[in-house]
Amino acid sequence: MSKIFQHLVSSAVPVPIENIDTDQIIPARFLKATTRDGFGENLFRDWRFDANNQPKADFVLNNPIYSGKVLVAGKNFGCGSSREHAAWALADYGFKVVVSSFFADIFKNNALNNFILPVQVSETFLDKVFQAIEADPEAKIEVDLENQLIRIVASGEQESFDINAYKKTCLLNGYDDIDYLLSLRQDIEKYEGTRAFNF
Amino acid sequence: MGKTLFDKIWDSHIVMSKPEHPDAVYINTHFIHEVTSPQAFDGLRKRGIPVFRPQKTRATADHNVPTLEQHLPIKEALSRHQVEMLTKNTTEFGVELYGLGHPYQGIVHVIGPELGITLPGMTIVCGDSHTSTHGAFGAVAFGIGTSEVEQVLATQCILQYKPKRMKIAVNGTLKNGVLSKDIILYIISKISASGATGYFVEYAGDAIRNLSMEARMTICNMSIEMGARGGLIAPDETTFSYIKGRQFAPQGAEWDKALAYWKTLFSDDDAAFDKVLTFDAADIEPQITYGTNPGMGMGVTQHIPALDQVEEKERPSFKKSLEYMDLQPGSALLGKKIDYVFIGSCTNSRIEDLRLVADYVKGKRKADDVVVWIVPGSKQVEAQAKAEGIDKVFAAAGFQLREPGCSACLGMNEDKVPAGMYCISTSNRNFEGRQGPNARTFLASPLTAAAAALTGRVTDVREAFGH
Ligand code: SF4
């Protein structure tokens, strides 16, 4: 997993379903590993495979015409559990960007902590992205973090997206939160000295 | 301008607040369990650093443990490995563990409160979204991911942007047969599974005030199911008398000092909320969900929305959900045959829940073709149930009282609902496959679940109370 994210041009995989929860992204029975690797195999497990572990032909990840590092999904993506395994599964499968019109809070943090960029766009733009992929499964999507822009390459339609400045710096440079917090050690000890209680 | 309860607690825990940066927030209590912690401990090893304040983290094994024969080695190899890793990691890093066999073991959100570890005014995190449960004590408690677990282990702090504040007031008197679970299912059905995303919710109003501590925990527990970062309730005499005398609660002079502080924990009259919602308790009937997210709920006597009552944009997801549940738009659920009843999870597995169910089913027998699992939230709840003879009531009713753990709430252990079967569950999520591949979940209160256990069908529990 590369820790740096700057700029990407890729085709995209569409999953136009709303409220995709973390149990769909990675069902709980696959959370037994004690490392961060290998979760991609079980990404969207129950949508991808039937009870006999045969790929379901109608699910988009089993359709070879769709591929790429960008996942495009309906609103309220990543709701449900706080399990970071959902972000690990997406990263392990090879996704670098998830585009949706709305993200669940904890998922957004987890994605960013794993150097996956959640790009929140308007409902209108999301529809345009879905339409572009429907018209051409190989349609390219461009994501420019520095300028906070997402673009449908063929049509040139673009929209800007929000990301907080701190997280942006982290992604562009490959820093993580622990590096920052560890640098605050003296402040943390000073704060502890001011607490009136020992709990 | 006054401050909200949430602001009072949050602001007093800020270690560092810089422009354009998330706040570095000090954490008083950190709970961990076997599923979301191993990769965090690995991270510490890779960086070559210890746990910064090991005495502020407590561990238990809950998500993955069997609920039968817990004294025997865990059969399933991967689960066993995860539980063993927790023992190894907590030993190596000096963290207290209430593992299998320990009298304090149980679901992490059940044991924190019952041991007096969860206290008003605290900041509390855990690698589990239902950490919001602890907010019932007037604490700022929320779920975090594993990278964040590592942050807290490494620094006792977490980086977070401050959420917005929402107040949800529920006023008036609840009808007979309506429980706090129904209140929260009702609210979520009204505002949707994403209706509180970005907010921290404070629950208020006399209907909330009149609830017991355990009933308040059920409400705060499900805050996450409407997308909220967490939920909390201002502490009061109910809170203080619940805490007093518990194993790890402050004592003597410490207690007096703490109590004086806790009494300052309320939202000032002129505090500003970003959003305020108000509900009337009298409007709430026993609730049940019909779909595959907790927002898809209704009164137990109502009908599932017909297609034309659903916004066009949402129809594909709605249809997909009902296909999964094998239910027809516009149909009623009352009388629908069910196969399983699960009474458990951090939402409804406390002693009050078990007492309520036992009172209701005493001297009665479950329907023949229904499997009923009762999974207590902790070893202490289990022991209390046995001390009160509740186990005998369940045995006579044909209910199976199992050992503590998350169990069929998420189907990580062997307690899974078989494919295609319907389960009335007191847990908090009805997602596809949550209780087992292709299992179908109806979320409801412990009373509605108990009523279904007796009839084998979706039942209006108020009938037993003569409305
Ligand atoms: S009981 Fe269910 S919701 Fe609660 S902590 Fe366990 S798995 Fe999570």
From TrEMBL, chain A:
One of its GO terms (cellular component) is 3-isopropylmalate dehydratase complex. The keyword Transmembrane does not apply. GO terms for biological process: L-leucine biosynthetic process. It catalyses: (2R,3S)-3-isopropylmalate = (2S)-2-isopropylmalate. GO terms for molecular function: 3-isopropylmalate dehydratase activity. SUPFAM superfamilies: LeuD/IlvD-like. Gene3D superfamilies: Aconitase, domain 4. Residues 4-123 form the Aconitase A/isopropylmalate dehydratase small subunit swivel domain. Its EC number is 4.2.1.33. Keywords: Amino-acid biosynthesis, Branched-chain amino acid biosynthesis, Leucine biosynthesis, Lyase. Pathway: Amino-acid biosynthesis; L-leucine biosynthesis; L-leucine from 3-methyl-2-oxobutanoate: step 2/4. The keyword Transcription regulation does not apply. Belongs to the LeuD family. LeuD type 1 subfamily. Catalyzes the isomerization between 2-isopropylmalate and 3-isopropylmalate, via the formation of 2-isopropylmaleate. This is 3-isopropylmalate dehydratase small subunit. It comes from Chitinophaga eiseniae. The lineage of its organism: Bacteria, Pseudomonadati, Bacteroidota, Chitinophagia, Chitinophagales.
From TrEMBL, chain B:
The keyword Secreted does not apply. It catalyses: (2R,3S)-3-isopropylmalate = (2S)-2-isopropylmalate. Pathway: Amino-acid biosynthesis; L-leucine biosynthesis; L-leucine from 3-methyl-2-oxobutanoate: step 2/4. The keyword Methyltransferase does not apply. SUPFAM superfamilies: Aconitase iron-sulfur domain. InterPro entries: 3-IsopropMal_deHydase_lsu, Acnase/IPM_dHydase_lsu_aba_1/3, Acoase/IPM_deHydtase_lsu_aba, Aconitase_4Fe-4S_BS, Aconitase_4Fe-4S_dom, IPM_dehydratase_rel_enz, IPMI_cat. Pfam families: Aconitase. Keywords: 4Fe-4S, Amino-acid biosynthesis, Branched-chain amino acid biosynthesis, Iron, Iron-sulfur, Leucine biosynthesis, Lyase, Metal-binding. [4Fe-4S] cluster binds at residues 346, 406, 409. One of its GO terms (molecular function) is 3-isopropylmalate dehydratase activity. Its EC number is 4.2.1.33. Binds 1 [4Fe-4S] cluster per subunit. Signal peptide: none annotated. GO terms for biological process: L-leucine biosynthetic process. Residues 7-456 form the Aconitase/3-isopropylmalate dehydratase large subunit alpha/beta/alpha domain. Heterodimer of LeuC and LeuD. Catalyzes the isomerization between 2-isopropylmalate and 3-isopropylmalate, via the formation of 2-isopropylmaleate. NCBIfam families: leuC, PRK05478.1, PRK12466.1. This is 3-isopropylmalate dehydratase large subunit. It comes from Chitinophaga eiseniae. The gene is leuC.
